[in-house]
What does this fold into?
Amino acid sequence: MSLDVSFSQGCVAVSKLDGTVTHKEQFQENEGPPAHLDVHGSHLAVATSRGVLWIYDISRPKPQPRKGRPGRSFEGDGNQRLGSILSVRLNCDASRVSVLARAARDPNNPGLLSVTGTVSAARDTKLYVYDVEADNFSEADCGADHFPVSHMWDDADPRLLAAEVQRVGEASSAETDLHAHVHLREVHPHPPSYCSPYRVSYGSL
It folds into this structure.
């Protein structure tokens, strides 16, 4: 099976490679339009501009939310917003989604971000992981002087996650290449600005 997944005009469209649209998923106004997508196998992760995360099984004629779960807001304990989502990556069995984010505002001083620095002032030093079964977010802190810039799951092991980490204050691409680090992390179960168009294609050859 080969499908094309794209978003524009506030909805996600699933279509065949010949352009035939098989399904459109519209989002509620309070969720915002889709802003980030990732496809892994027969599953799709969508993050909206207002920080709502959806996971769909797109192997069916009509995509269904994974395990029937509704959208999950990017929030921690006490409904505290964790930040603004920059990218999402889905693991190989769709049991977890990793998230890179801009730092949340400091509640004690709304005019300041909770992460300090120069170039990276708006980037969170944490890499977040949403566990579908537990319905919660865990986090890995890269340290006060580093922040994650890219992330990828292993194609076979759903627990293995890699992240590229950049040093705070790097000003040039040359410095970034020299000082970037790749961290491998095994993820264990946790105890109980809109751009268009964006497109991801997958399928068998």
